[in-house]
Design a protein that fits this description.
Layout: E1 5-8, H1 13-21, E2 28-31, H2 34-46, E3 58-61, H3 64-71, H4 86-96, E4 102-108, H5 114-121, E5 125-136, H6 142-148, E6 151-154, H7 157-167, H8 170-177, E7 181-184, H9 187-195, E8 202-203, H10 209-221
Parallel strand pairs: 2-3, 2-4, 4-5, 6-7, 7-8
Antiparallel strand pairs: 1-5
Helix pairs in contact: 1-2, 2-3, 4-5, 7-8, 7-9
Length: about 220
């Protein structure tokens, strides 16, 4: 294991807490990761509140893992897109809502702005709250761990950037990946890897950790 990133509190924790406190004022609450779900409901727990704090707000999850994290907190997602990327989530939310609806997007600080921009462009009122941020690890043994590996797996664009950071730049990262199997959880992550000069061998069809494992298993058994 050679983690390239780790989670840290957001730069503005008061804004994240205020978003949770005002959850029932939104038409939709959108979670783009299981980590966001965890932070949101941990904040509710600290105030001795539960899912009732959501009031009549509908809930959307970007994928099955995020949806499962919600179910573990007693909430069933009203909407999960068929394809687990922000563009498809935006399309699904626009189809399920109307202009003037208020959205809370509870997400990582560094997430792409595709979703809020699409909603705002179509007349939705959007509040974006950073539940957490990702920071790069600084592992002095990272290069050695990569050298000993035969397969590199990237589960988000930020893990690609963390990989590049730990190896000292894109040229070094591309050299370290040479001759290894590179697997990405989805097309957005694969695009980030290719932009850094890292060739991609596998892109999961199901954009989840389980889908990534299945893709690797198919390669091994082929």
């Amino acid at each position: 294991m050679a983690p390239a990133i780790e989670l840290a509190p957001p730069d503005d924790p008061a804004a994240a807490a205020q978003a949770v406190h005002s959850a029932r004022t939104f038409s939709w609450i959108v979670f783009t990761s299981a980590n966001g779900v965890r932070v949101f409901f941990d904040m509710l727990d600290e105030r001795r509140e539960d899912a009732r704090a959501l009031g009549d707000a509908k809930v959307a999850a970007i994928g099955l893992q995020t949806s499962a994290a919600l179910r573990s907190r007693g909430v069933y997602a009203d909407l999960v897109p068929q394809t687990y990327i922000a563009e498809h989530l935006a399309d699904a939310l626009l189809a399920a809502s109307k202009p003037g609806d208020r959205f809370l997007i509870y997400r990582a600080a560094q997430a792409r702005d595709v979703l809020p921009e699409a909603l705002r462009a179509n007349g939705r009122d959007v509040v974006v709250a950073a539940a957490y941020k990702t920071v790069y690890t600084s592992d002095p043994d990272f290069a050695a761990k990569v050298a000993r590996s035969g397969v590199l797996t990237f589960t988000s664009s930020s893990t690609v950037r963390g990989f590049v950071h730990n190896l000292g730049g894109e040229a070094e990262a591309a050299r370290a990946a040479h001759g290894k199997i590179v697997a990405c959880i989805g097309p957005v992550t694969a695009q980030e890897a290719r932009a850094a000069g890292i060739p991609v061998d596998i892109v999961a069809h199901d954009y989840t950790a389980h889908g990534l494992v299945q893709a690797l298993e198919r390669l091994v058994s082929a």
